[in-house]
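Lab notebook, bench 4. We co-purified these components, and the gel suggests they stay together. Before we commit to crystallization screens, I want a quick structural picture of the whole thing.
Request: model the full complex, all chains together.
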Amino acid sequence: MSPKTLYDKIWDAHVAHEADDGTCLLYIDRHLVHEVTSPQAFEGLRMAGRSVRAPDKTIAVPDHNVPTTPGRDDPKNMTEDSAIQVAALDKNAKDFGIHYYPVSDVRQGIVHIVGPEQGWTLPGMTVVCGDSHTATHGAFGALAHGIGTSEVEHVLATQTLIQKKSKNMKVEITGKLRPGVTAKDITLSVIGETGTAGGTGYVIEYCGEAIRDLSMEGRMTVCNMAIEGGARAGLIAPDEKTFDYVMGRPHAPKGAQWEAALAWWKTLYSDDDAQWDKVVTIKGEDIAPVVTWGTSPEDVLPITGVVPAADSFEGGKVGAAQRSLDYMDLKPGTPLAEIEIDTVFIGSCTNGRIEDLRAAAEILKGKKIKDGLRAMVVPGSGLVRLQAEEEGLADIFKEAGFEWRLAGCSMCLAMNPDQLAPGERCAATSNRNFEGRQGRGGRTHLMSPAMAAAAAVTGRLTDVREMM
Amino acid sequence: MDKFTTLTGIAAPTPMVNVDTDMIIPKQFLKTIKRSGLGVNLFDEMRYDDDGNEIPGFVLNQPQYRSAEILVAGDNFGCGSSREHAPWAIKDFGIRCVIAPSFADIFYNNCFKNGILPIALPQDAVDVLMKDAEKGANARMDIDLEAQTVTTSDGEVFHFELDSFKKHCLLNGLDDIGLTLEKAASIDSFEAKATADRPWV
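Here is the predicted assembly.
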């Protein structure tokens, strides 16, 4: 047999039909659904008199525009248009008989946090969702990617997706990370190296010692931002950490089925002599704690750096950098660690898991946030929130001056009331620093949870290593 | 789905790289449960000021480009979220074709589901088309999907590549779900075998 990559293996196990031109019907094992990108898809099914082919493999949870303040299970406490979308999901879940975690359920949260937490996401699966950050689930060695609403409808109706195979890209992070450097710094640094289009047309497999050393939470952070590098999906081969994380979760296999699953999962790795279309290698020890300065996730620099000049770039990026500098109101040459912030946001599908909250709390323990700053923690799920409360993390955040919110996407994309005002500057653990992403005119600097916590204490972008 | 065969229209120059889906349609307009009516908010934050007035300098507010049917843009167009509201807004405005050196993967796929033709061409070709678009309303560009060509107002022809299946569906306005359901027997047999092999799924 010819050698295969992990991607090749998962792909081959899911081709339900292949046409002469290589167009495939890829079978989908898990379809995750949220309130914003699904209403038109369910409506399409109704109009055509179609049903959901595999309701048992379809899991829905409202996350994008739910408020994160108490009383939110009363629709009166949502804006009218948000309430309509959430009500539509309630109804669609019921009408079509799919699994559902409503806002009133403690297990509700961001769809990409709930899926793994409940054991819906398993190694070797194909996972899709009408959301680009579906790449998160690649941390389990599952082929996971975002789709548009027409494709959501297609998967609902047929449990397949029309696909052509992507190319294979290997991103290897060798060696050990230095203190203060986290999964977020890895994933941002990779995008800084390859650019936001560097992964276009590829599925990335992340490997190397620094990746193996990451927890499952850290691996999810890395894969989550594969899309920000343009890749269709990011993957990490499953190992003992993966199996330990999955074992015992509500929807993970049990007993003999667990043994059978484990036997297959252990075959899910790239063969030594597998062929790669592109390889990127970064030394783990070369990665520093980083922040973004501009309005693209590729605008990444170590916190010790300075704001770059537009003319230090080439081609179309010169104009884009100038536009970023104007939008961000930054002057070239300014040390990044002198940039003052108004707001801190800790949360999102990138960094809203328990380990992220632990890392931030570790920095905040016994400290207060800078006077006048607004800071919030939005746990990624109701269960993450509960666990953080049990571990005493919630108290640390509250005593430091953070708001302790309910689970949801919140200020990552500002579809709910959590938004930046025009001109406000935010240290955020989310995934996109696009213009207006966190609110019209808002300015976003992306970073790790520990770095965001450090910024909350000083009121400016801060090298977390100074606080360790 | 609407067919796409040929198009002769005004092209609006948008010489920016990394035009993201938040720029194309900001999140406050994603709260609709319909696919229509988003054109008025296409590029909302670049197109209108805080009071909702048009910003005169923005390309689609300029008289010569108000009825543009083609966009010429920079690298990595449509990056960011999977929101199909982006192509819905583009289509609703009246744009049927976007030309750029490269596109983000999900956006590119979403276009084909909505009768929009995304054309990827090398940077130097896009530079020529950008110049042509800058001539305004008197310069019409021709797109021929069957022949896979873009022709400038001066008659210069550029050939583009695209996937044959996507081309076939767009030319004929075919509905993907209908096509896939014709292969229901293959899905049934795959599903039966997969369930036997991997019962835990």
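The two ends of chain B are 34 Å apart (CA to CA). Worth comparing against the SEC data before the next meeting. The longest strand of chain B covers residues 6-14.
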